[in-house]
Amino acid sequence: MTVTPSATAGDVVDVAVALGGTADLYSSAVTLTYDPALLTYASGEVTSPEGGFGQVVPGEGTVTFVYSRLGTSPGIEGDVPVGTAQFTAAAAGTATVALSSVTVVGADGVGAGIAPEDLPSQAVVIEAAPTTPPVDPTDPPTDPTDPPTDPPTGPTDEPTDPPSDPTSTLPTTGPTDTATTDAPPAAGAATGGLASTGVALTGLAVAGTVFVVVGIVLARRRTVMSR
20 to 30 A Cα–Cα from 223, which one of 30, 39, 172, 207? Predict the structure, then answer.
């Protein structure tokens, strides 16, 4: 059996178990014990050769590795790995890991055991985990970040040129005459009321002429009739 000899609280402690000098090994059951106040079981695995069935059975302060060949498989000879276990160092102290029981059975079904006093054990020295010293509250606070060297940009300066006057709404010249100047009337042409009067006089002259003609005709007819 091999065990991590020393650790710090919180570290992993590895344990590996093996049987040496076996002859015609068909099945086995190996139990190890540990101090649960100083070690906490984490995981385990059977590492026996293929061609068989293995199981890890954890208990209160114990871990048992069970292994058996299958069917007519032949027994195993020589050094045989049994299994591994991982523990977490829980507190400072000296923890003992020991094999408390080993039972083996041959291919002929005959079992044998090993006396407890002949089983190995090993101590694990566990140291306390270092503590982080508290931060001294009297330390002055860190200076804040230096202010920027360039001052902030001020508001934009007032414009040097006064703003342009809005476009004047008053016309620069008088309104454009929209009425077309009438051309002077042609010579001899009547305009306005005179033209209208001329038309009226012309009508009267025509009517007078008609009356004169009618009067002459009537006078001739009377002369003829008197004859």
Answer: 207
